[in-house]
C-alpha cells in the first residue's frame, strides 16, 4: 500500500502515460506518411510462422514442454491481438487456452520442485508436487492431443 502512491507519482509512470496518449497520433501520422505499408502482410507472415512452429513442436515426440508452452502463448496472444487476421480453425483459441493452462500447471510444479532442491524447508511438499506434476503432465498431453487433432495435420 505504501508503494502505490510512489508509483502513481513517479516520473516513469507519467512518461508512460504520455507515450500511450500520443500513440494513436503517432500511428495516424505514420500511416499518412506511408510508413505502415505492408504491415498487415508482415503481421500475417509472423502469425503464420508462429503457427507453423507450434505445429512442428506438437508433432515432435521429444518436444520440450516449457518451449511448447511459450509457443502456445505467442500464438494465442497473436490471435487475441489481431483477431481480424485470425485464419485458424474455429476450435484453435479455446484449445490453445486449455493447453496453456495445463502446461502452466505443469510448469508451476516443475518450478517448485526445482526450488525444493535448493530449499530444505520445502522438502515436505515434494511428494505432493511430484504427484501433481504427473497429473498435470497427463492433462497437458490430453489437451495437446486434442489441439493437434483438431487444428493441425496428422
List keywords for this structure.
154 residues, mainly alpha, 2 domains, 6 helices, 77% helix
Summarize it.
This protein has 154 residues and is mainly α. The chain has helices at residues 3-8, 11-32, 39-58, 65-81, 92-118, 126-151.
Order of helices and strands: HHHHHH
- Provide the residue-averaged pLDDT: 91
Strand content: under 5%
What general form does the structure show? flat
Major sheet: none
**Termini separation (Å)?**
53 Å
When the domains are counted, the total is 2
State Rg. Answer: 21 Å
Structural class by sheet pairing and helices: mainly alpha
Q: Count up the helices.
A: 6
Helix content: over 70%
Uncertain residue ranges = none
Number of strands: 0
Description:
The chain has six helices and no strands. The chain folds into two domains: 1-37, no CATH class; 38-151, no CATH class. The mean pLDDT is 91. The N and C termini lie far apart (53 Å). 14% of the residues are buried. The chain has helices at residues 3-8, 11-32, 39-58, 65-81, 92-118, 126-151.
Question: What's the layout of helices and strands?
Answer:
Layout lengths: L2 H6 L2 H22 L6 H20 L6 H17 L10 H27 L7 H26 L3
Helix pairs in contact: 3-4, 4-5, 5-6
